[in-house]
Amino acid sequence: MNSTSYLDLYHQFSTDIDAELNSGIEQLGPSSTTVQNAVTDLLRHQTFRYPLQVLPLLVHGAETGDPGPAVPLSAIHVLWWTSACYLDDLADGQAATVSRELGGNEALLASIISGNSLPLRIIHSQQVPDSVRGALVTELATCWITGTEGQLNDLRRDAADATRDSVIKTYRGKSGAPFGMITAMGAILAGAEHERIQKWRDFGDVFGILWQLFNDQEDILSGRNEDLRNGTVTYLFACALENASPASKNHLLNLHAAARISEEARSELTKSLLAPSALHHYRVDLARFRDKAQRLLIELGGDETHVPVLHRLVEESAELLLHQTE
Q1: DSSP of 3-71, one letter per residue?
Q2: What is this structure's pTM?
Q3: R_g (Cα) of the chain, nearest Å
Q4: Dist CA 16 CA 21 (whole Å)
Q5: Are 80 and 111 in contact (CB under 8 A)?
Q6: How far is CA 61 from the centre of its chain?
Q7: 100-133 per-position pLDDT tens digit
Q8: What structural domains and CATH numbers belong to the chain?
Q9: How confident is the model at residue 46 (pLDDT cuts 50, 70, 90)?
Q10: Chain-centre distance of CA 142, in angstroms?
Q11: 3-state DSSP assignment of residue 213
Q12: How far apart are CA 191 and CA 211, in angstroms?
């Protein structure tokens, strides 16, 4: 997934984002050296292949022509996802020692600071009106509630009851909410009107769903198959399940259960997920979410330098990367 413009924007501001992260950690104070070191280790451990921390920069740039003031929001994006990814791994039973100095329990505590206290410190350090500061805090708090709801629904879901709608509801919490948070924050910081803030939040929500669908595909293509090992009910699995006969549905559910520990079951289930009928619905729904995101961007408009980057990012996120089996 490459977009020169979006990567160039990241390279332009990556040093500033790192400086903002370091400054935020230092704001924890001289009496919290252990906490600072733990958060630093966690950030070093949790790296991201795609620098989507540019999203608030792009939103602020679309609104004002200047992405720079949104650098603190990019740092908040990194901190939030660092925390959420570790907590997600913990929920899936994957979390382990992060480094020689940072064990699992220490990383858990660091993730709480990373996702909550540090973003709040960064927000309160901004020279903005109290109304803007309060709105940013509200976005952060609401995101954690909605994101946790999505994660709990994911953990408690019975695979037999999975539908495409139910999985999207979970994705909207786990991925849509944090992207909606950060795009809304970008608009708030830019001084956008309420209606535009809501549209930016809606865009982030849809983009987050697209990005989760993109991640689902990458998990299969990479051969990691973490979703199958964790028993995750993915959208592609729901596509396959909804179109299966009763006998085939039972077979899919048995494979899904066995895939946690069996390589053979994972291989057979993957073939079923890549069947033409499942991929057809997946392709159609990718296009549906892509079109919704693009419509929102068209309605929003904005700076001609930054909006086209968002359009391209949506297109790349909505690509069908998987190939059907015979």
Answers
A1: -HHHHHHHHHHHHHHHHHHHHHHHTT-TT-HHHHHHHHHHHHH---SS-GGGHHHHHHHHHHS--GGGH
A2: 0.94
A3: 20
A4: 9
A5: no
A6: 21
A7: 677 888 889 999 999 999 999 999 999 999 999 9
A8: 4-317 (1.10.600.10)
A9: confident
A10: 15
A11: helix
A12: 27
